[in-house]
């Protein structure tokens, strides 16, 4: 192993992805530390992965994640899934995202913060290709300033969003989206609304689970895969050539 180039070691560590394994591996020797620092592509922080997380205070956990992220350059994949952790400081999480956003291609984000962090505002206009967002709220979508020119896959899980913002996000903010996943979203409707209408010329696949609406209309010419699970919809209509 000592003869492997640091770039190859970085690729190996990127396949581990879990931060706990990367941290342990980086203590092996100086070469592995360099690989972690300069050639690591992915990092994953999951509260279920590392039992020691449960023994840390929220502040200590913030410091640990901050140190690990800031020791690396060029991260392309970042996963922060903190189901069992209390609220992080919004400013700390913003620092993580600002540090990595220019190189990120994939972001898996399930973090409770105070105040709420606007992922669209921070990561818009960057190179993100996949966004998985959980247990957060999305408000005030502004396609001009929160545009995702490269995003192809969007997953919203237990997310609070208005019908208007969902429509703007799909139709205007994500011009290249191909895959959409909606799992138990809390979709706010105005008093005059009874229908959620979504339109995308590029959308190919949609997965919907536990959606409770009166009427859902999807306009998409390229739909190849449609899967609905446990959805309480009075009317679901797909309009397009591919249906």
Automatic annotation (TrEMBL):
Residues 4-45 form the F-box domain. InterPro entries: F-box-like_dom_sf, F-box_dom, LRR_dom_sf, LRR_FXL15/At3g58940/PEG3-like. SUPFAM superfamilies: F-box domain, RNI-like. It holds the Pfam family F-box-like. This is F-box domain-containing protein.
């Amino acid at each position: 192993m000592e003869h492997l180039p640091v770039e190859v070691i970085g690729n190996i560590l990127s396949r581990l992805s879990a931060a706990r394994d990367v941290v342990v591996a980086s203590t092996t020797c100086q070469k592995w530390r360099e690989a972690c620092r300069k050639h690591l592509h992915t990092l994953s922080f999951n509260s279920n992965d590392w039992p020691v997380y449960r023994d840390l205070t929220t502040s200590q956990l913030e410091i640990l994640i901050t140190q690990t992220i800031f020791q690396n350059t060029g991260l392309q994949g970042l996963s922060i899934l903190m189901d069992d952790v209390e609220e992080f400081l919004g400013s700390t999480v913003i620092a993580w995202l600002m540090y990595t956003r220019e190189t990120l291609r994939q972001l898996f984000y399930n973090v409770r913060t105070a105040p709420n962090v606007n992922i669209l505002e921070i990561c818009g206009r960057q190179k993100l290709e996949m966004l998985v967002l959980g247990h957060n709220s999305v408000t005030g979508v502004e396609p001009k300033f929160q545009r995702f020119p490269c995003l192809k896959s969007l997953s919203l899980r237990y997310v609070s969003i208005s019908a208007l913002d969902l429509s703007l996000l799909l139709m205007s903010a994500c011009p290249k989206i191909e895959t959409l996943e909606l799992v138990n979203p809390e979709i706010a409707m105005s008093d005059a609304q009874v229908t959620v209408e979504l339109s995308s010329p590029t959308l190919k696949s949609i997965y919907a689970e536990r959606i409770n609406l009166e009427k859902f209309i999807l306009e998409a010419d390229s739909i190849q895969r449609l899967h609905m699970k446990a959805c309480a919809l009075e009317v679901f209509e797909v309009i397009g050539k591919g249906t």
